[in-house]
Design a protein that fits this description.
alpha/beta; TIM Barrel; Oligo-1,6-glucosidase, domain 2; Immunoglobulin-like; 3 domains; eight-stranded parallel β-barrel; six-stranded antiparallel sheet; 17 helices; 24 strands; 18% strand; glycosidase; carbohydrate metabolism; EC 3.2.1.1
Length: 553
């Protein structure tokens, strides 16, 4: 069962091929470069890689405008290079997930060119058209402040086409059975080339009804089951990780009441509450978000993250909470994006304070679900606010003090490597941190190992333990006769907490598996623990013979 549901106790690493390493010397990362860094990823301890889009694309939206679903963008290599990469990852025990961008295509895609050129084309109904501009064309934009409309007139088609995202990304008519059949072919193609699953981009928009007469889109959830059934017939342990920023009441619609739809979803509810907790040292909304997202099918799993390749979306917070997060982490206008989020990387958001960075990542690894790490966060990379929109947090990986951070031999990388300030590659890079036993990189490697040795977090049930302090979060996980208990202090000052682990006689002894600072209960069964500012503790409940005590069921 554990092997079948590998994603329950995985560590996923998100990266972009174009910004990881350039072996061709043209300034753009490629699969050969990524192949050469697989040993780094294996050594770090990740169990799966999530690749951002690498298919053929004009590159107007970092590859999220696909022009050919069955080919690698020639800047990154060939299909042969991709297969060599997936084979190399498999040799190292690393699975590969790729982005599945099927809500829209590039306007350069042959399907759209055929659709706009001839109203009788078989591809005409693969997109969404209207002879007149709909009255609600100025509503529902994904990128407000940058995007003006969701309907754009095409001179050749002599009609308006629908695009939830940018105007160069016309939406596919995903209600069309022919489009759905093509999506299955796309998934089947990449599965044959060594992929273990997909991160489904913009899942709610894919399954929503579309059209000029649609004022309130209806989600077609059966579509998710169709995708799931096809995928698992092709490869039994393959998965879909859905990007769906939804309310907790809709979680089972995406997972399926019987766990027959998406295996994984990103937990945006917890992510937003988490950053409010960082900003305010108030964990109460975070606890509520965890409790609200706790119910899920036994085979389903949450993907937990701190930062990703998009802005930090704060749309689910109250206005007061959102204001607190903006004030703490994105007070300047150029740090904010789309009237709802922050476009910075984690390290600069936390002021470069290693105590806070470690605490935040420790909390990520101890939240109920599977941790997803953004490339470069393991070394504390910064951002370049001079770059437009989300590109500020998509700069090349910083490998060494060599020119261009060891990313490329070219003097013109696809995006400028960060050179100036405390986050410049001269100060923040893999090579320097590898040699420092106290570096964030080596700390992250140890944390990943510790997280993988605590399957209770991925598989077990969690309980929030009362500490009497809203700024200290205590979580206990129970699974197969064993428990771990993890404390985090979100305060900028030390905190002493007294609590009952609620595990009877086993709870009288807590063994710290991070640094050996264990705790014994008093005569009433309570523990008193002193936590440093932004401190944390990972405890085994009852001793280190847990592997001997673990039950099989």
């Amino acid at each position: 069962m554990i092997n079948d549901l590998w994603y329950k106790n995985a560590v996923i690493y998100c990266l972009s091929v174009e910004t990881f390493m350039d072996a061709n010397g043209d300034g753009v990362g490629d699969f050969q470069g990524l192949m050469r860094r697989l040993d780094y990823l294996s050594g770090l301890g990740v169990t799966a890689i999530w690749l951002m889009p690498f298919q053929a694309s004009p590159g107007r939206d970092d590859g999220y405008d696909v022009s050919d679903y069955y080919n690698v963008d020639p800047r990154y290599g060939s299909l042969g290079d991709f297969v060599e990469f997936t084979h190399g990852a498999k040799q190292r025990g690393i699975r590969v997930l790729i982005d599945l961008v099927i809500n829209h295509t590039s306007r350069d895609h042959a399907w759209f060119q055929a659709a706009r050129s001839d109203p009788r084309s078989r591809y005409r109904d693969w997109y969404v058209w209207s002879e007149k501009k709909p009255d609600n064309a100025d509503q529902g934009m994904v990128f407000p402040g940058v995007q003006k409309t969701t309907w754009t007139y095409d001179d050749k088609a002599k009609a308006y086409y629908f695009h939830r995202f940018y105007d160069h990304q016309p939406d596919l008519n995903t209600s069309n059975p022919d489009v759905q059949a093509e999506i299955l072919k796309i998934m089947g193609f990449w599965i044959q080339l060594g992929v273990s699953g997909f991160r489904m981009d913009a899942a709610p928009f894919i399954i929503a009804t579309k059209g000029a007469d649609v004022t309130k889109p209806v989600e077609q959830f059966d579509m998710l089951r169709k995708f799931r059934e096809f995928l698992q017939w092709r490869l039994g342990d393959s998965i879909i990780l859905a990007e769906a920023n939804i309310l907790p009441k809709d979680n089972f619609e995406y997972f399926g009441d019987d766990g027959d739809r998406m295996q994984m979803m990103f937990n945006f509810q917890v992510n937003q509450a988490l950053f409010y907790a960082f900003a305010s040292a108030d964990t109460r909304p975070l606890k509520r978000a965890m409790e609200a997202t706790k119910p899920r099918p036994a085979t389903a799993q949450w993907g937990l993250f701190l930062r990703n390749h998009d802005e930090l979306d704060l749309g689910r917070l109250t206005e007061k909470q959102r204001g607190a997060v903006f004030a703490a982490f994105g007070p300047e206008k150029d740090m904010q994006l789309y009237d709802r989020g922050i476009r910075r990387r984690l390290a600069p958001m936390l002021g470069g304070d290693h105590r806070r960075i470690e605490m935040a990542n420790s909390l990520l690894f101890s939240l109920p679900g599977t941790p997803v790490i953004r490339y470069g966060d393991e070394i504390g990379m910064g951002d370049d606010l001079g770059l437009p929109e989300r590109n500020c947090a998509r700069t090349p990986m910083q490998w060494s003090t060599e020119p261009e951070g060891g990313f490329t031999k070219s003097k013109k990388p696809i995006l400028p490597v960060i050179k100036d300030g405390p986050y410049g590659f001269q100060h923040v890079n893999v090579a320097e941190q590898r040699r420092d036993p106290n570096s964030l990189l080596n700390w992250t490697e140890r944390m990943i190992r510790m997280r993988k040795e605590a399957p209770e977090i991925g598989w077990g049930d969690f309980s929030v333990i009362d500490t009497g302090n809203d700024g200290v979060l205590a979580l206990r996980y129970d699974w197969r006769g064993n428990s771990v208990l993890i404390l985090h202090n979100l305060h900028a000052q030390p905190a002493e907490v007294t609590f009952d682990p609620e595990r009877g006689e086993d709870g009288r002894q807590l063994i710290d598996i991070a640094d050996g600072a264990s705790s014994n209960a008093d005569e009433k069964g309570f523990h008193t623990v002193m936590l440093d500012a932004y401190g944390y503790r990972w405890y085994r409940v009852g001793g280190l013979d847990y592997l001997l005590r673990r039950t099989e069921i």
